[in-house]
Design goal:
Helix content: 10-25%
Number of domains: 1
CATH topology: Peptide Deformylase
CATH architecture: Alpha-Beta Complex
Number of strands: 9
Strand content: 35-45%
CATH class: Alpha Beta
Largest sheet: 7 strands, mixed
Shape: globular
Order of helices and strands: EEEEHHEEEEEHH
Length: about 200
């Protein structure tokens, strides 16, 4: 019987009916011990590069001093607004519906998801997963290099609490690629950061 594997090339979900060998990889996104690096070399909250768009390539995890709820809640709305504009530009350039904050030089854990229906971008800042359902094995690829893939065990549905761009706390159930995007964010930051978020 064919195995189903969802493909979330941080863009679209595709149903694949045969489990293909990924050069012997059977790992989760964090199945390897990866080196840790700062989001920005100057340890700042937002890089100075206005055109920052550096897609994640599964070669490191990020550490940040901007993970705690206290720091996140005190971050200027203008920083989040600049980051959202960068994310929109990056999503267009990389042709993806999921942008992770380190990809645009923002050291606060956040994801930016683009609606397929309206093309509007939504900021999900410092998300905490409160519950999750429907486990799936997902192919995750870099939007700039679809051959650079990893498999990850993620859930198709997650109930999250997060900060909006207006700095209000929201709770929402997200599905499919948006759920995968949130979960991927929590895997690209180190354990210390993820603990501080929760």
């Amino acid at each position: 019987m064919p195995t189903q594997l969802k493909a979330a090339g941080t863009a679209a979900t595709i149903l694949i009916t045969t489990l293909m060998s990924l050069n012997g990889e059977n790992d989760d996104v964090n199945g390897f011990a990866l080196p840790t690096s700062r989001v920005n070399s100057d340890n700042g909250i937002l890089s100075d590069n206005d055109t920052e768009c550096d897609p994640y390539t599964f070669d490191r995890v990020f550490e940040s001093d901007f993970c705690s709820a206290f720091v996140t809640s005190r971050t200027s709305r203008s920083i989040f607004s600049i980051a959202e504009t960068r994310a929109s530009n990056c999503a267009s350039l990389a042709q993806t519906e999921c942008v992770l904050s380190p990809e645009i030089g923002l050291a606060v854990p956040a994801v930016y998801v683009v609606s397929r229906d309206t093309n509007a971008i939504k900021s999900i800042i410092a998300p905490k997963i409160l519950d999750s359902w429907s486990p799936a094995t997902v192919r995750v690829s870099s939007p700039m290099d679809e051959l650079m893939m990893r498999r990850a065990s993620l859930n198709e549905t997650v109930f999250i609490e997060f900060l909006t761009i207006d700095k209000t706390i929201a709770r929402e159930t997200v599905y499919g690629d948006d759920a995968f995007c949130v979960q991927l964010l929590l895997r690209v930051f180190d354990e210390k950061c993820v603990r501080e978020m929760s």
